[in-house]
Amino acid sequence: MSCFQTIQDYGLRSLGIGERLLPRSDFTLCEHFVLIGSGMIWNIYFGIVALLLGFFLATALAVAKASPRRILRKPAEWFIFLFRGSPLFIQFFFAYFLFLNLKSQYPVFSPFTAAWLGALIVLFLNTAAYSGEIFYGALRSIPKGDVEAADAYGMTGWPRFRRIVWPTMLRLAWPAYTNEAIFLFHATTLVFFSGFPAWQQRGDALYYASYFADKTFNPFVPYPILAGYFILFTLVVVTVFGLINRRLNRHLPQERRTKMRFRPNLIR
Amino acid sequence: MSFYLAFLKVIGLLAVTAPVALGFGFLGAMAARSHIAPLRWFGKTYIAIVRGVPDIAFFLFFVIALDQGFEYIRHKVKCPDWDAPIRQGSDFIVCQAAKLPLGTSPEWVHETYGFALAVLTFAIVFGAFAANVLFGGMRAVPRAQLETAEAYGMSRRQTLWRILVPQMWVYALPGLSNLWMVLIKATPLLFLLGIEDIVYWARELGGTKTARFTDYPHGDWRMWYFLFLLVFYLAFTRVSEIVLSRIMIRLAHGQATTAGEAQRKAAA
């Protein structure tokens, strides 16, 4: 079987398109690459959607946490502590069984027990909490002069936030936020190892890598391939975020721009 | 009973892994700043590789890889006249005497061996993180301190042990305490390494058994078990936060940093 044939059969296997049965024996290197790459679709989906949605909640959380009003500040503080203080792994498990319980009472919840929605919600809340903390830190280190200048121009409320506070917050938080994005992207591998079942063996990259490792008892081929894919996509993330960082800092003189520091990956 | 033992296992793992990982980290950091080029390359690669790849992939990889590595070495030493290849297709075959642990050894040896492998895996992964933090800490010690030591005629070794190592902890502690939090949150991954830890038991005890095995005459309790675990981890992180901030205050005492200076001023 040629490699092209393999790509046709397994290229979209993780979405349920193509050959139904996974290869069982005589694994070729091509099959490793194609199937693990096909699983990466899920990792990218979880990463991008959770990050995009999480961005908005994170901004709201940061503003709420910096608010002088107790009624806004306390819930935001608790939310951030809850998601940053407990392992993501346990959060996945808890959410899965919570949705399972809800499903048995209200059938509305049945899509929530599938990974594409249930795990996405957990990742979304989790990344919102982590980036909320990052944005909160940036919010507190906005130069006093900037805000005073805005006041002097008579800006208040929403225009001041939209034009002065928010762009500066993003600019200051961006290097840390890049790390958070990489970190979230790596965390997506946990999804199918927690409660969420890989229905009809449609899993993510790590799911297929461990499938190969289980079948061949040889960890030295699938995991390095997985690592290669992840390093590749980490580089893509770094490039894209670097471009955004350039744009955020475009008004500053060269030497005052915040440098991107590549400092990713601790477990959450 | 085993359920309660699982909590001890988690705490035991933390207690053993933390110093071992710190040791690995120290060696890694020393290697990374060594004057001997191969040693330096080794140190830097160790730090770079482990940090660039999702750690869960490492946990899955190292357990098999270490196990096979040990068996391979024992096989070479104990059965030199064995001529069949070790990797036969997808099988990994070593002679009986080289099996680790021996097929004849009692149950607890198997469990201890699994636990030791888990500790080693954790130590390798977190050692790299710790190495990075310590490496940064060593570089953060003010140059003037080292120059003063040299001016007093201390040798390189004396400078290292008497000046650099005692001072680097202040700079490394924020990173290390962060790492400790991360380590706490990584413990549920033990479950992936095949240790019967708290996650395993929460799934096991909470689930309803099928009609043939009606051991647990209750409904699906897994959700509550995971909620309990969530609270357990939250409490654990909170306590650690408080303890670590105490240690930070102690360490900052008398140091040439802002925190140390603030303490001096407060006392005076």
CATH architecture annotation name of chain A:
Orthogonal Bundle
The class by helix and strand makeup of chain A works out as: mainly alpha
Radius of gyration of chain A: 22 Å
- Euclidean distance between termini CA atoms of chain A: 41 Å
Give the ordered list of helices and strands of chain B: HHHEEHHHHHH
Question: What helical percentage do the residues of chain B reach?
Answer: over 70%
Percentage of residues in helical conformation of chain A: 55-70%
Number of helices of chain B: 9
Low-confidence stretches of chain B: 208-215
The oligomerization state is: heterodimer
CATH fold title of chain B: MetI-like fold
Level-2 CATH architecture of chain B: Orthogonal Bundle
Would you give an account of this structure?
The complex is a heterodimer of chains A (268) and B (268). Chain A has 268 residues and is an all-alpha fold. Chain A has one domain: Orthogonal Bundle (MetI-like fold). Chain A has helices spanning 3-10, 29-65, 70-85, 88-105, 115-140, 144-152, 157-187, 205-216, 222-248. In chain A, helix 2 runs parallel beside helix 9 and helix 7 (157-187) packs antiparallel against helix 9. Chain A is globular. The two termini of chain A are 41 Å apart. Chain B has one domain (2-198): Orthogonal Bundle (MetI-like fold). In chain B, 73% of the residues lie in helices and 1% in strands. In chain B, strands 1-2 form a two-stranded antiparallel sheet. In chain B, strand 1 and strand 2 form a beta hairpin. Chains A and B meet through helix 3, helix 4, helix 8 and helix 9 of A and helix 3, strand 2, helix 6, helix 7 and helix 8 of B. Chain A: Keywords: Amino-acid transport, Cell membrane, Membrane, Transmembrane, Transmembrane helix, Transport. Chain A: Residues 40-244 form the ABC transmembrane type-1 domain. Chain A: This is ABC transporter permease subunit. Chain A: The chain crosses the membrane at residues 44-64, 76-99, 111-130, 181-200, 220-244. Chain A: Its main location: membrane.
